[in-house]
Design a protein that fits this description.
transmembrane, single chain, three-stranded mixed β-sheet, alpha+beta, steroid metabolism, 47 helices, 1300 residues, membrane, NPC1-like, lipid transport, 9% strand
């Protein structure tokens, strides 16, 4: 055979035969030289095709079945062809039609006996005096080109989650682009053709040539057909695949050019109907009321107006709120009697009460010695029994924990004149940065830790750093040797196929992971370098690996701040950076960032409280009448209740949270200050002539039931939160419930005792804050105002301005209509609230992570890795699991891999960016006899690696020349497999070979590195693989809604596939555990709010025994919460654990705005307007000063916080809560009480209070008090009955302990 070409060549030279273009003739034959990089070049011999011997012919048939008879290639040429195509075969072997078309293209080019008909040598080159082919024209029909491209365009290359045509065709979009890519003349040491190939459809008519037109195979061919994953256009596939679901649109109604949501439209109609009914009913009631009241109303009014008090005592009696104690329920009656007795006892033994109550709470504070704060996100937001937590635990223990991520983003300035990052200077800067990082050392327990000590090394000793520098093997000197920027651009298209583009860790580097800010595949237009350092992670900090990594991460962040940032800025670029532990470290810093702001907020509230408890300041007596010391003492009691709660739970081993430290003091202070103001103002409202113990008793009898009612409702509302699964909310609810309970106990014990001491101090003319100093005796004029009872400015405003305005019938209509409209708007707006918690909000505003997260959203072009985890894969021959998973030839059309590939076609719905990397597909391809360079064995039956790996490719000689592997054969022949599938024994035996096989140019399907952690081999020999995973990626996730929706979509997809395949499959991504809470955050919020409000209703109903009062409180609290949800939507505040805690807390504070006003209204005497006036003048003024103004001054300070989370979730939400509570409690609630009392009056057909009663009848109303009292309670009734003439006798008898 070797002498034939030489003889023919000699004859051609001697006789000068012209080039012949006809069947049976060659255009190229044999090898006449080689390039400097070793690539061989054909001889431009136009000779007749040569008949091969039988052995050579069978070899040709095994690879090129279309070539029969004579051939135009030598055995050396064929071996070169075989070695070159074997690198491409693993990419397309899963689709037989694509493989056959691809091989036919090169078989016809190399060995076709009719080569001269479609190959025209256009240029030659001299190498060692031999002419070699340097360029050819390859005439080929468009039909073949189109057929070849169509059969290959959807074929997947599993391990890199991409398409085979991206590697074999440079991402070609049609066959012409593919041919152009194949025909490029390769540079030195670059993969590709050693000579240029120009593909043309038709030769000149005069040339006598014809285009190559071997039949192309369709991927849907019956015999060579591909799976649905590689051929979705096949008829069998299109009939089984459902059309992609359209993104669900919210229901909307269009009226002309106006389009509104259905819920908005329904609420608008409902509001119109309700307002119309309200207005109609009000009008009818007003007309009927006028008819009934007009005949008899004049005379009583005249009688009443004729009554003129004749003494100062009678005037004081008129100024005293008259109580209709008959309105109290049985429970309230018992509470009133208890508080009356209790008040006297406390007033007589204040020191004992103060010492005992404070001592008990101080005992609870001892538990602070075990105080700990929980900062780990997984312990804060992930509850016991969490599906995502269990799935993460399974993934970590059976496969491998997800690696830690350290990342740098170097980007061009936003308005830079050079938007592209890909320049020589910038890449050299990247080398300088890498040198700094490589030289970084961190101290951990006395040992130095470097990146190489902790980094992930999937394929050897080199770190799997995801950086553009991998195209230069991470070696600076290779930059110029490889060709600089041009080499980088070359690698963008050949990063899997070119040896020079493979990374230092022997794996391909996808440009998507190393670049950012580009569109499509335009990598050269990228505006950012993304450098990622994957670091090994460990379950439960095994071997201190986590601690070592954290130590290095802290040093890495410091390096970035101190050295890398100045380096990058000097080049006009921007740098952002992050480590795995960055968020936790910054959250710790955030917890202390606003300590001063919070402290100022509380100090402002303390100052206001101290001032508001005192009387109206007078120059000559303010230091006596002020109650700064009482206010400060009360605040200390509030803080003591919080500390006692934390101490108790710390003692039993529960950790505190930052939410507790930030929210509960605010909550308890709001409740405590309100109670303080109510108690002090109630005592101050009593007649000054009464003994102090009697004033305290009367005050407690008046406000004690409402304080008890409010506190019990709040305690129960928070206590139900203990059943929430989310740890942060559950712990908050438990701590808050106990803190409110302790605060209530201290308020009715220690604070009442402090009130007694303070009033004694004032009566004894002792100086506030310095009670040891007693003011000298002075004239009566100087004492004017000291101890006198004069309504304050706020009380006068409430009685004389606020209440009369609300009493007007037009104002009532406007108020009711406005607040119900507000509630309807709140419901509509609430549907627009999105779940989530933007990371930028949680972090300090000056955190380096702020820029990092902004750049992630701007530049990143790939989302987080997504794994589909399969449990209990049965690989036995009897099971169908294998075909239900794979996506190559003969796999089920609805297999897992095929369904993932279909889902990736609609990424806007599925949030799946790419087909999955399937170890099952690659394993089956690796086993395939067609992939003859992959699964091989020595004669002794052990694994034989590909020819380009040791020992087949020793370091001291060229690959393929070693004698060690010359006898290696493929693991199986087709006859050894059943329908191209291995038997149970074959699968069991070859799977470890596959997972330990290194990928290389001769066999890119090796599983080591790509799938090392994708299969759990523990117990696999039983025929069941307990756990395995299939990796893909989410689309870029820039907003919290994207993370939540992507998780929901993945779970829904997995559930559907699991049901379809009858297999257990679940999705896993590293962020799922933290975002699981948002999947049902609305459910969590609504259930907890409903239970809390229902608990308040139940407590109110039990204590008041009044369904209407309880229903009113329920309605107003619900409206406050609904309106607060509306405010959240307006300010774009997301629904998360923080806002849920705030909403639950809002129930407690809303109770304070409602219960006291309702109770005061229920026990006030007179008609409904008089009762409203008395309730607002007494209790309304206390609520307004005690909770509204106090919280208002404190909240405003939070607006200056450095942390965005305080501004959004505390300043905005608390401010809205205080304002809404004030408006509902002091504007809407009084109007609603009047309307409901009118309705009840009409239903019952009788009057509860008689505005026409004479003075004696009013006294009789209050005379019902003795029926509720025992013992000393008779005092008040007798005082009212005897009148002013007997006051002195009664005071004497009471003081002496005798019965009058």
């Amino acid at each position: 055979m070797k002498i034939v070409p030489s003889l023919i060549l000699l004859l051609l030279i001697l006789y000068g035969v012209e080039a012949r273009k006809s069947a049976g003739y060659c255009a190229m034959y044999d090898i006449c030289g080689a390039r400097t990089d070793g690539k061989v070049l054909n001889c431009p011999y136009n000779i007749p095709a040569v008949k091969p011997d039988d052995l050579f012919s069978s070899k040709i048939q095994s690879l090129c079945p279309t070539i029969t008879g004579n051939v135009c290639c030598t055995e050396t040429q064929f071996d070169t062809l075989r070695s070159q195509v074997q690198q491409a075969i693993p990419f397309v072997v899963g689709c037989p039609a694509c493989l056959r078309n691809f091989l036919n293209l090169f078989c016809e080019l190399t060995c076709s006996p009719d080569q001269s008909l479609f190959i025209n040598v256009t240029s030659t080159a001299k190498i060692k005096n031999n002419s070699t082919v340097d360029g050819i024209q390859y005439y080929i029909t468009d039909a073949f080109g189109e057929g070849m491209y169509e059969s290959c365009k959807n074929v997947k290359f599993g391990s890199s989650n991409s398409l085979a045509v991206d590697f074999l065709g440079g991402g070609a979009k049609n066959f012409k682009e593919w041919f152009t890519f194949i025909g490029q003349k390769a540079g030195v040491n670059m993969p590709g053709s050693p000579y240029g190939i120009k593909f043309l459809p038709m030769p000149p008519a005069s040339s006598g040539m014809k285009p190559m037109n071997v039949s192309s195979y369709s991927c849907s061919d019956d015999t060579l057909g591909c799976s649905c994953g590689d051929c979705p256009s096949a008829a069998a596939c299109s009939s089984t695949s459902a059309p992609p679901a359209q993104k669900q649109r919210s229901c909307s109604i269009k009226i002309g050019s106006l389009e509104a949501k259905c819920v908005d439209f329904v609420l608008a109609i409902l509001y119109i109907v309700l307002v119309s009914l309200f207005l109609g009913g009000g009008l009818i009631h007003r007309i009927k009321g006028k008819k009934k009241s007009s005949p008899s109303s004049s005379e009583p009014r005249g009688e009443q107006s004729s009554v003129k008090p004749d003494t100062i005592h009678a005037q004081m009696l008129q100024n005293t709120p008259q109580r209709n104690w008959a309105q109290l329920s049985t429970v309230q009656g018992y509470l009133a009697r208890f508080y009356s007795k209790y008040g006297i006892w406390v007033a007589r033994h204040p020191a004992l009460v103060l010492i005992v109550s404070v001592f008990i709470v101080l005992l609870l504070c001892v538990g602070l010695i075990r105080f700990k704060v929980e900062t780990r996100p997984d312990k804060l937001w992930v509850g016991a029994g969490s599906r995502a937590a269990d799935e993460k635990r399974f993934f970590d223990t059976h496969l491998a924990p997800f690696y830690r991520i350290e990342q740098l983003i170097i980007a061009t300035a936003p308005k830079s004149s050079q938007p592209e990052i890909l320049t020589d200077d910038n890449i050299k800067l990247l080398f300088d940065i890498q040198k700094k990082v490589d030289g970084l050392r961190a101290n951990h327990s006395g040992s130095m830790v470097s990146l190489t000590d902790i980094c992930m090394k999937p394929l050897g000793e080199d770190c799997a750093t995801q950086s553009l520098l991998q195209y230069f093997k991470m070696i600076p000197k290779n930059y110029d040797e490889f060709g600089g920027v041009e080499h980088v651009k070359y690698c963008f298209e050949h990063f899997t196929s070119s040896e020079s583009c493979l990374s230092a860790f022997k794996g391909p580097l996808d440009p998507t992971t190393a670049l950012g800010g580009f569109s499509g595949n335009s990598y050269s237009e990228a505006s950012a370098f993304i450098v990622t350092y994957p670091v090994d992670n460990a379950v439960d900090n095994k071997g201190n690996r986590t601690e070592r990594a954290v130590a290095w991460e802290k040093a890495f962040i410091q390096l970035a701040k101190d050295e890398l940032l100045p380096m990058v800025k000097s080049k006009g670029l921007t740098l952002s950076f992050s480590s795995e532990s960055s968020i936790e470290e910054e959250l710790k810093r955030e917890s202390t960032a606003d300590v001063i702001t919070i402290a100022i907020s509380y100090l402002v509230m303390f100052a206001y409280i101290s001032l508001t408890l005192g009387d109206t300041p007078r120059l000559n007596s303010f230091y006596i009448t002020s109650k700064v010391l009482l206010g400060l003492s009360g605040v200390l009691l509030v803080m003591l209740s919080v500390i006692g709660s934390v101490g108790f739970f710390s003692a039993i081993g529960m950790k505190s949270t930052l939410i507790i430290m930030e929210v509960i003091p605010f909550l308890v202070l709001a409740v405590g200050v309100d109670n303080m103001c109510i108690l002090v103002h109630a005592v101050k409202r009593q007649e000054q002539e009464l003994p102090l113990e009697r004033r305290v008793s009367n005050a407690l009898m008046e406000v004690g039931p409402s304080i008890t009612l409010a506190s019990l409702a709040e305690i129960l509302a928070f206590a139900v939160g203990a059943y929430i699964k989310m740890p942060a909310v559950r712990v908050f609810s438990m701590f808050a419930a106990l803190a409110v309970l302790l605060d209530f106990i201290l308020q009715i014990t220690a604070f009442v005792a402090l009130i007694v001491f303070d009033f004694k101090r004032a009566e004894d003319k002792r100086v506030d804050c310095f009670p040891c100093i007693k003011r000298a005796q002075s004239s009566d004029g100087d004492d004017k105002g000291v101890g006198q009872k004069k309504p304050g400015l706020l009380t006068r405003y409430m009685k004389e301005v606020h209440a009369p305005i609300l009493s007007h019938w037009a104002v009532k209509i406007v108020v009711i209509a406005f607040f119900f409209g507000l509630a309807m708007a709140g419901i509509a707006l609430a549907t627009r609230i999105e779940p989530g918690l933007e990371q930028q909000i949680v972090l300090p505003q000056d955190s380096y992570l702020q820029d990092y997260f902004n750049n992630i959203a701007t530049y990143l072009r790939i989302g987080p890795p997504l794994y589909f985890v399969l449990k209990n894969y049965n690989y036995s021959s009897e099971s169908r699991h294998t075909n239900q998973l794979c996506s190559i030839n003969k796999c089920d059309s609805n297999s897992l891999m095929n369904e993932i590939a279909k889902a990736s076609l609609t990424p806007e719905l599925s949030y799946i960016a790419k087909p999955a990397a399937s170890w099952v597909d690659d394993f089956l391809v690796w086993l395939s006899p067609e992939a003859f360079g992959c699964c091989r064995k020595f004669t002794n039956g052990t694994f034989c690696p590909p020819d380009d790996q040791p020992p087949c490719c020793p370091a001291d000689q060229a690959c393929g020349l070693s004698e060690v592997c010359k006898d290696c054969t493929t693991c199986f022949r087709h006859a050894d497999l059943t329908s191209d599938r291995p038997s149970t024994i074959q699968f069991k035996e070859k799977l470890p070979w596959f997972l330990s096989a290194l990928p290389s140019a001769d066999c890119a399907k090796g599983g080591y590195g790509a799938y090392s952690t994708s299969v759990d081999l523990k117990g696999y020999k039983s025929g069941i693989i307990q756990a395995s995973s299939f990796r893909t990626y989410h689309t870029p996730l820039n907003k919290q809604a994207d993370f939540v929706n992507s998780m929901r979509a993945a779970q829904e997809f997995s559930s559907k596939i699991s049901r379809s395949l009858q297999m257990e499959i679940y999705p896993y991504s590293v962020f799922y555990m933290f975002f699981e809470q948002y999947l049902d955050i609305w459910k969590t919020a609504l259930i907890n709010l409903s239970i809390a409000i229902a608990a308040v209703f139940a407590v109110c109903l039990i204590i008041t025994c009044s369904f209407w009062s309880s229903a009113i409180i329920l309605l107003v609290i619900a409206m406050i919460i609904i309106d607060l949800l509306g405010v959240m939507a307006v300010f774009h505040i997301q629904l998360n654990a923080l806002s849920v805690v705030n909403l639950i807390m809002s129930v407690g504070i809303a109770v304070e705005f409602c219960v006291h006003i309702t109770h005061a209204f229920s026990i006030s005497s007179g008609d409904r307007n008089q009762r409203m006036k008395e309730a607002l003048g007494g209790m309304g003024a206390s609520v307004f000063s005690g909770i509204t103004l106090t919280k208002l001054v404190g909240v405003i300070v939070l607006g200056f916080s450095k942390s965005e989370v305080f501004v959004v979730y505390y300043f905005k939400m608390y401010l809205a809560l205080v304002l809404l509570g004030f408006l509902h409690g002091l504007v809407f609630l009084p109007e609603h009480n009047i309307c409901v009392s009118e309705s009840i009056h009409l239903l019952n057909g009788q009057q509860h209070c008689h505005p026409s009663a004479t003075k004696g009848e009013v006294v009789a109303s209050t005379a019902t008090l003795p029926t509720l009292s025992v013992g000393d309670l008779h005092y008040d009734a007798k005082y009212l009955r005897h009148g002013p003439d007997d006051a002195s006798a009664i005071r004497y008898n009471s003081a002496s302990g005798r019965r009058p």
